[in-house]
Amino acid sequence: MVDTQYSYTPTALGKISDTLTSIFAELQGEDAVYNRSANCNLIILVSGPQRLPALEQLIDALSLAHPSRFFVAFPDPSTSTVQASISARCHGLSKTEHVCSEVIRLSAAPAAFAGIPSVIRAHMLTGMPTEIFLYDPDVDIALIRAVAPLADSIFLDSQSFSTNFQKLAELLPLTRTVVDFSWVGLGVWREELKLGVNRCAAGLGRPQVRSIEIGFEGPSAAQPGALALLFAGWVVNRLGAAVLECGIDNCIRLCGADGSVIELKFVGSRSDQTERLSRVRLTLEAAGKEFTVEMLRAKLLETTVSGKDVHRATRPFEDESFEGRVRRHFFIGESLANYSGAVRVALKIRESLQSH
Amino acid sequence: MENPFAEGENRIIRPPGTAIVIFGATGDLTHRKLIPALYNLAYDDYMPSNFVVVGAARTPLSDEDFRKNLFESVKKHSRRTINDELWQRFSQNIYYQQLDGTSLESFVKLRERLQSLEKKRAETLNYLYYLATSPSFFGPIATNLRGAGLVEDPKAAARSTSLIIEKPFGHDLASARELNSVLRKSFAEEQIFRIDHYLGKETVQNILVFRFANGIFEPLWNHNFIDHIQISFCEDIGVGSRAGYFDQSGILRDIVQNHLLQILALLCIEPPYSLSDADAIRDEKVKVLRAIRRLKPEDVARQTVRAQYTKGFVNGESAIGYMEEKGIAATSQTETFAALRLEVDNWRWSGVPIYVRAGKRLAKRITEISIAFKRAPESLFRGRQVGELDQNILAIQVQPNEGISLKICSKPPGPRLRVRPVVMDFTYGHSFGVPSPDAYERLLLDSMKGDASLFTRDDEIEEAWDLLAPVLEQWALPAGGKVARPPLHTYEAGTWGPAAAATLLKEQKHRWRRL
Ligand SMILES: NC(=O)c1ccc[n+]([C@@H]2O[C@H](COP(=O)([O-])OP(=O)(O)OC[C@H]3O[C@@H](n4cnc5c(N)ncnc54)[C@H](OP(=O)(O)O)[C@@H]3O)[C@@H](O)[C@H]2O)c1
Fold this sequence. Notes:
heterodimer, A: 356 residues, alpha/beta, Dihydrodipicolinate Reductase, domain 2, ten-stranded mixed beta sheet, 10 helices, 30% helix, B: 515 residues, nine-stranded mixed beta sheet, binds NADP nicotinamide-adenine-dinucleotide phosphate
């Protein structure tokens, strides 16, 4: 990055466009061109000003991967009316050419917050896709509801909702598309499971899954967090199975598409790190033969498929940090095809576990 | 060819000597639009070498005071900086004549004034009468102009005499016909210039150039390739000082009947045989207006939506609801938002819905035309996780940022096959390096030259009213009558209108473009 301007210029609401223009006029140097660039409107909702410093890094990362007109909206008890301030984020394409995103910060006391969506509406780039980034799990659902109709999709990281996974149930109906960076992070595991099952099913027809075990590690070993739930939700949803009942010890009985009983078990271990998957084990039957597919977190992701023969494969993990997953989504992309089905089942599993 | 020297010669942009008489010269339109536009024409050196502007209204004013008042308005409203020397030269041609539009005697005095002004100029001046008064004076002023001998036969006269009028051109079909027939008692149709200032906007004029000067678009301009069209007129302001007038009229009459139907007609016309003959374009526009399928009474509730704004926030500022505005009747049923689904029932446009919406106190000020092309087949991308392919959208922004953009699907850089929409943009300012002139400048210039291409003809007005007649009728049904009146919805100020407007498009799986 060649040039990043972190300073924010306060502006009257009626002058937002003019201030943006003047900021860019000031940026232009004799030997460099600064292009205003955006391929979407990106609305970032934050629960309060205390979150802003950390957010700057995300905006930097996003503006590089996904030049946008950013709107950052947050409640600020220290102001009464809606306040606006503006900044630009520029990245050098070459020595003489820079690509810049515009950042419009909007804040208001909770009582005046109702005015904020109208400012966003008034300044959205016409005809561009519009996305909401739920960077902060503590954002008031009322604020999300007010802004959601403006957007085509919501970006979030369900891992950050682990203590309130149920919030996803409220978010899903608000939008057509959810991009969940936890889902992006699970991509390697999904891909490996797909390849493993391919191997045991080769030439033997559709295998029947008999049991699923999902190991996870994280601050709480007692209950699976978002990642384990999402992964389980995906597996169960792809199998077309239904949640039957919850037994003891994080164990759930499922009814498979063919009426058979499948056992789903979560095995947790405590660690100080944020939640992550540690192991996945599926037992399957195909053409009367039993197989297991086991994936283990070591330095690499190690997969063993055992049946008649044993086959081993390894694969490196992708960057699992939040920034890494965000980058992966924007630079490489991730299939979202089965996400909503996976979440729906994950929510049911969670409900079933909690009801016990 | 009658005149052997005319062929290929089309370089004159400066009109012949003209006396412009503005009736309603102390009013808002004159101060905010007309005189600043004339000043800007002078600035660009487009005014005739001999011209006079005579302002006429009842208020007693000296020439000098009138000029002083205008100077203040020009300073405020002209897009050009004021050049003192130019203003001095320009304003020396401006005069004021006290006049009552209903008194023939006033017009006799006006004639004498015009004759004496003309004498000093050693040039026969054409007379151009601009009626910037309430429409109730259109009839009396036209009649008095003829009565005072200020209208000449268009065929025989040495000078041309023409009349410019401003909307509203009637209140419905019957009143529009009545107005046309009153005016034609004094002026021939070819002498009447009805201003629809949208036709003077560069982007609107560009519709024809864009369609007919580019080999790539016209072949696609039909039901085989176009999925639907949207025309949106959005204002963020409320009714303000025009509350009284607006409450009697509503947005369907104020905006849709004229500006939006004119745009629709230009978008959909067949190629005219010539762009030089004003009637060639207008004939084609009439054909389109005539081909728009008339709504049956029972279609109105299904194909139209009307609504009023309630209190809300516009760009962060709180805004009162329509019923709280000063000057609005307590029982008002006037719509501040209207949306219609129309269809041009001819071969080219068969089955292509055209959605038109206009509203006040919406999220922002923008007028845009968007042409949505049919989606490409998705078979090639199925299973490639690219999601639903976006439609190609050709968007023509009429205001505030005049320009054209084309949304196309593109692959973002990277190892996977992904598809994202990107927009190719053309804006007037960036491409041509100059801002577009105000619509009134172009229209005043054309009217001085006698070119009526950008003015609406009587039959266009009548067709437009005829089209809207069933809507107006149904919307005006009494509450609690035998036939149910279509509902008057509400929408929060600062939003994009009522939910019912979105429902109007849902039937055909369309959505309003996010502006
Ligand atoms: N303002 C706009 O932006 C706008 C836009 C589109 C269309 N229009 C149309 O343009 C016309 C004028 O609008 P406006 O806003 O300028 O109206 P306005 O401000 O009310 O002005 C009306 C003018 O008419 C004059 N007038 C009234 N009674 C008269 C009479 N008996 N004889 C001669 N003059 C008389 C008034 O001057 P005295 O009182 O001194 O006589 C005043 O100069 C209307 O038809 C309106 O619908 C206006």
